[in-house]
Structures are given as structure tokens and as C-alpha cells.
Design brief:
Elements lengths: L3 E6 L6 E7 L13 H9 L2 E2 L2 E2 H11 L2 E6 L4 E7 L4 H13 L4 H16 L4 H10 L12 H5 L3 H12 L3 E7 L3 H12 L18 E5 L3 E10 L5 H12 L5 H9 L6 E8 L2 E10 L5 H13 L7 H21 L1 H14 L1 E2 L6 H5 L3 H11 L5 E7 L2 H8 L7
Parallel strand pairs: 1-7, 8-13
Antiparallel strand pairs: 2-6, 2-7, 3-4, 5-6, 9-11, 9-13, 10-11, 10-12
Helix pairs in contact: 1-7, 3-8, 9-12, 9-15, 10-11
């Protein structure tokens, strides 16, 4: 089966973002509730071609490449972000992840990682959060149980990889890129075996909390909301005021004032009937992970100080100017991209109109903040070099998060 490619090229961009969507999540497995698809996601990071996991993470750090993955009922997604000149390296690394040989030792180690992260939290606070979010996902959780994960064999894992990765798939790439640079990855994707099972696309809930062991430190905060409840233009204005630009409180505080991170990235995604607002940043010093998270949540909680008429006026010209370039010079390309993604139920970038941004009022933004920035629908994921230590530290600041 050929990979469907969706391209959004912008030669003025300073980066490249790519996403591989395998339309075979946990529903592709014989028992969708077993956690096999989630295991496949974890195993993708266990080895990369001839590189060990340690060597793999060193390469991503050395080249400034970010690679992530997620799993739900309907699909497994692998995404990466890099500088344009690093795209060939990123493609090589992701290709290695998808084609690496798995062995029993890798499987045994990764099963213990999953069990430790999901079922053996080290503090009562983490337990409370997991009960609140993980157990509320749905009656059909793709995480499985401690018992089901412990019983996975190498044969079952390899069979699941074929089913999860072998069906219909999409490659979405945006930014400043050359087609020749990502062509080797398409060759790898087109080499997967077809999977005959029909996969039904469904909306995903990302309400979970997790602390993962990584060779680098990062914080990812995601707010989940109903797409029909929030206007895209109003959400963009809220995102711009709070999170984007050096004048925004989040960028100013976390980056300029306290030096916790080099940059805070904020993205809007739509998946089925759900919308996601994600705030992501990397932290060099492990000791700054929790203070930075507390600061971020404090700013969000005291947003009334920053969502003002003056800040709204500052944000509007930025987006209307961008729209002049985006939709006057690239209208056909954007419409094609939007049409393809809408058919998937996934919207990577949304076309809008200048007048819609210009008509957004302060009250619109305030109402959007109340709807989206809701503590009952937030997912927090933290990656760090010492997850166990961080879990113990988190118990000490539970009243601030």
C-alpha cells in the first residue's frame, strides 16, 4: 500500500515538521484493550537501525531533532521536528526506528518500563492524577493492564507491529524542505505489509499524565476541548497573547526572565471532534523542570492579568499580516492541504480569513480561555533523565499544580 503524502511547503520557514500517521492503533490488534499497540509505540524507541537506544538519543540531541509518538484506538503517530538542513538525518533516524530488529531482551526491558510508568506510581499524588485521567480515558483503554503487558511475547509484539504499522498511512510534512530529503522514508513506509483489517477513525482523548525517562528534559501540557465549542480564530488569539512571542507572559517568564528554556512551542491540533492546545518546551537543567511547570500553570491560572485589550490589539496585526502571505500567494496549496487533512479528520493548519481575526473581541478570548484552559481536561507529560526522583519531588508541589 502506497503512503499518501500531504505537503505544505513554506520556503520562509526555519524548521520542518513531519508526522507519520499509521491508521492502525489499538483497534488493529486482536484484543484492542491488551496494550499491544502501546507496546509497539514504546518499542519503536528501543532501537534505531544499528544504533542502541542510548546512541539514538545522543544523535537526536546532537542534531537538535525532536522525535515523539502517540497511540490511540484509531492510529499510531510518529512525528519529528528539525532544522531544514537536518531533515536527511531525521529521516535516517526515523527509518531506523521503523525497521530495527527487536529481541527478547529489548522486549523484557520495555515491558518493565511500561509497567513502572503506568501501574507503579511512586507517590499518592501521581496515583490520584492517573486515576483521574488514565482511568477516565474510556472503557476501552489502549494501555492494557499490568497482567496483559507482562504476558506479551516477542512473537506477539512482532505480529502487532505488522498490524499497527502495515495498513493505511499518511505522511504529512510542513515547512522548508526538499522532497528528495524525505524520499528514503517514503520507501521504507511503502515497504510495510498491507493489513486487511478495516480501521475506523475515531476521536481520541489525550487526558493522561505521565513521567517518562529520557536523555533530555521536556514538559508537554495539553488541553483537550470539544472542537464545536471553540472558534479557531479566538483560540489563535488566546494562544498568541499567552504563549507566543517574546512579549507573551509564558515566553517572557520561562525564557527571558528565568532562563528555564530556550523556547516554548505552542500548537493547535484537531482530531475528530476533539481539539488540542499543546504547550511544549525543553529544559536543560533537571532541577528546573518542576519550577518551570509551576510557573507555567501559575501564568495560566492568572491569565486575567495578561488577556487584555492592549495585548489583543498587539496580536491581531501579526496574524492578519501572515494571512496576506499565506492565503494570497499560496491559496491553491493551502486549500489542497486543508481538503486532504479534513478528509482524515485531522487538521494540521486551518485556513481562515483576515476579517474573522479582526472581529475577535476581548470577551471572545476570555470565554475561550474559560472553555479551553480547564484543569479537568489537561494532560501533563514530563520527560527527564531521572523519572523516579522527579515523581518523588512532584509530591511536594502537588498543591501548586
Amino acid at each position: 500500500m502506497k503512503t499518501e503524502i500531504i505537503k505544505y511547503k513554506n520556503e520562509h520557514s526555519h524548521s520542518v515538521y513531519a508526522s507519520i500517521i499509521f491508521m492502525g492503533g489499538s483497534n488493529a490488534c486482536d484484543n484492542p484493550n491488551s496494550g499491544l499497540a502501546h507496546l509497539v509505540e514504546h518499542m519503536l524507541f528501543r532501537a534505531c537501525g544499528e544504533l542502541s537506544q542510548e546512541e539514538f538519543y545522543k544523535e537526536t540531541a546532537r542534531h537538535g531533532i525532536t522525535i515523539n509518538a502517540s497511540t490511540c484506538d484509531s492510529h499510531l503517530e510518529v512525528n519529528f521536528r528539525c532544522l531544514p538542513e537536518k531533515l536527511p538525518v531525521a529521516v535516517q533516524l526515523v527509518s531506523g526506528m521503523l525497521t530495527a530488529e527487536w529481541d527478547k531482551n529489548m522486549l523484557a526491558f520495555e515491558k518493565q518500563v511500561i509497567i513502572a510508568e503506568t501501574y507503579n506510581p511512586s507517590s499518592s499524588y501521581v496515583t490520584k492524577l492517573k486515576n483521574k485521567y488514565l482511568n477516565a480515558l474510556s472503557t476501552k483503554s489502549n494501555l492494557g493492564t499490568k497482567t496483559s503487558v507482562s504476558r506479551f511475547t516477542l512473537k506477539k509484539a512482532l505480529e502487532a507491529r505488522k498490524k499497527v504499522l502495515g495498513g493505511k498511512r499518511y505522511f504529512i510534512i510542513a515547512g522548508n524542505f526538499n522532497e528528495a530529503d524525505y524520499a528514503p522514508l517514503i520507501d521504507v513506509l511503502d515497504g510495510f505489509e498491507d493489513h486487511v483489517r478495516e480501521i475506523k477513525h475515531s476521536a481520541t482523548k489525550y487526558e493522561k499524565v505521565s513521567i517518562k525517562t529520557h536523555d533530555y528534559n521536556y514538559v508537554s501540557v495539553t488541553f483537550v476541548f470539544n472542537k464545536r465549542d471553540v472558534s479557531y480564530e479566538r483560540l489563535v488569539m488566546l494562544k498568541s497573547i499567552l504563549f507566543e512571542g517574546l512579549e507573551s507572559p509564558v515566553q517572557y517568564s520561562l525564557r527571558e526572565q528565568k532562563g528555564y528554556t530556550y523556547s516554548v512551542d505552542t500548537e493547535i491540533w484537531y482530531l475528530g471532534e476533539k481539539g488540542l492546545l499543546n504547550i511544549y518546551y525543553e529544559v536543560e537543567d533537571t532541577e528546573n523542570i518542576l519550577p518551570s511547570l509551576v510557573e507555567l500553570i501559575s501564568i495560566i491560572g492568572n491569565r486575567e492579568k495578561h488577556v487584555t485589550e492592549d495585548n489583543l490589539k498587539l496580536s491581531k496585526p501579526f496574524h492578519t499580516t501572515n494571512l496576506n502571505f499565506l492565503y494570497d500567494d499560496n491559496r491553491a496549496l493551502v486549500e489542497e492541504c486543508e481538503y486532504s487533512l479534513t478528509n482524515l479528520g485531522i487538521i494540521f493548519d486551518i485556513k481562515s480569513e483576515k476579517r474573522k481575526f479582526e472581529s475577535v473581541t476581548l470577551l471572545d478570548v476570555i470565554d475561550t480561555a474559560k472553555t479551553v484552559l480547564n484543569e479537568d481536561s489537561v494532560a501533563i507529560e514530563i520527560g527527564c533523565v531521572n523519572a523516579q526522583k522527579l515523581k518523588r519531588s512532584m509530591a511536594l508541589i502537588k498543591d501548586k499544580i
